[in-house]
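Example 9 (inverse folding). The structure is encoded as follows.
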């Protein structure tokens, strides 16, 4: 899933930082941790090509090959259809931001401005009424705005 690959990617990036792994050694240091036998076979068949890539290029190849071609559209749709409902605003906003992170680097990624528009237009009615009666909409810093809502 996009979530599983993102979690693995973040774990790798943290490993690289902690261990001081040079950019040219990053793929070789972590590829053995992709334990699925099918992925290992794919790697074995394409190792020379994959080893020549940077870690970010490698991850792009992994996503391109192993995720469905419409994965970004599916994540975007899930994100844009999401409503706050009865969830606490902060928890719901974190869910939306987590989905948006999966889309980073794609045309579906929402800027902070568009993310805020989405959150404002999909918050529950009671919160929206309170929100519009305050000056919160004047706050321009996204993270400060999130904290204040």
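The amino acid assigned to each position is listed next.
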């Amino acid at each position: 899933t996009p979530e599983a690959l993102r979690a693995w990617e973040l774990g790798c990036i943290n490993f690289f930082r902690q261990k001081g792994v040079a950019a040219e050694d990053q793929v070789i240091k972590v590829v053995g941790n992709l334990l699925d036998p099918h992925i290992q076979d794919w790697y074995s068949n394409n190792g020379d090509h994959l080893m020549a890539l940077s870690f970010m290029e490698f991850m792009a190849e992994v996503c391109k090959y192993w995720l469905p071609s419409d994965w970004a559209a599916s994540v975007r749709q899930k994100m844009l259809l999401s409503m706050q409902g009865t969830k606490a605003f902060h928890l719901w906003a974190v869910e939306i931001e987590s989905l948006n992170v999966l889309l980073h680097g794609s045309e579906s990624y929402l800027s902070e401005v568009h993310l805020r528009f989405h959150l404002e237009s999909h918050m529950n009615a009671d919160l929206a009424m309170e929100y519009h009666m305050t000056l919160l909409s004047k706050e321009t810093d996204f993270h400060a705005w999130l904290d204040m809502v």
